[in-house]
Structure prediction request, 214 residues.
Amino acid sequence: MTVSSSSVPVVVRRRTQADRSAVTRGKVVQATVMLLQTQGYAATTVQRIAKTAGVSLGALQHQFPTKAQVMAMVLRHYAVKRARLYRRALSMKGSPEERVDAMLDTMWRLVTDGPEFLATVEIELARRSDPDLEAATAPVLARIDQFMTRWLSGQRMVTPDPRFVELRLLNSALLRGMAVERARGVPLEDLARSFDVWRQFSRAQFLRIAGRQD
Prediction:
C-alpha cells in the first residue's frame, strides 16, 4: 500500500498474520501476568484472560487451546526476558567478582521490578495439583534451570560443577520466598536488608567454588 504526498511516496507495510499473532500473544501475556498477581492461579481463567486482554476467546484458544499452554507461554516469555537481563548485566564483566555482583544485582531486580516474577511463582505452585500444567511447563522450567546453572558457573559450553546446581537452587528458593514476602506486604526496605545478608553469603560461596577463595 502506497500513500502519496506532494513529493515523496510513503510505503506502509500491511500487517501480516504473524504480526497479528504476535500482538495477540503480547496482550495475553500482559493480561495473564496481571491476573495471576492480583487474582491468583485458580481465578485466572481463559475467559478472564481473553476479556482482560481485549481479544476474543476464539482468537486466544486458536493459539493456546488450553490454560496450561497459556501458562507455559508466560513462563517462556519471562525466561527470555530473564536471559536478556543476565546477558546484558554480564556482557562487560570480566572478573568472577564482577560477574557475581552483576548476577546478584539482576536477581534483586527480577524480584522488585514489576509483577512478572510473582506471576511465575503462582504458576509453579499450581503445578503440584494440575497434571496438565505440570506436563506443559516442565520442559520450559527445565531449560530455565539449565540456563541459570550455566550462567552462575560462567561455563555455558561445558557441564558445570554440581555445586553450582545447589547454589542455583538456593538462589531460586530465596527469590521465590522474597516474591511471596512482597505479596504479603513486607516493606521493600526490609527485604533489601535481608537480601544484603544473602548477597554476602552467596558471593562468598560463588567465589569459593570458582577457586578464588579458600
Summary: DSSP finds nine helices and two strands in the chain.
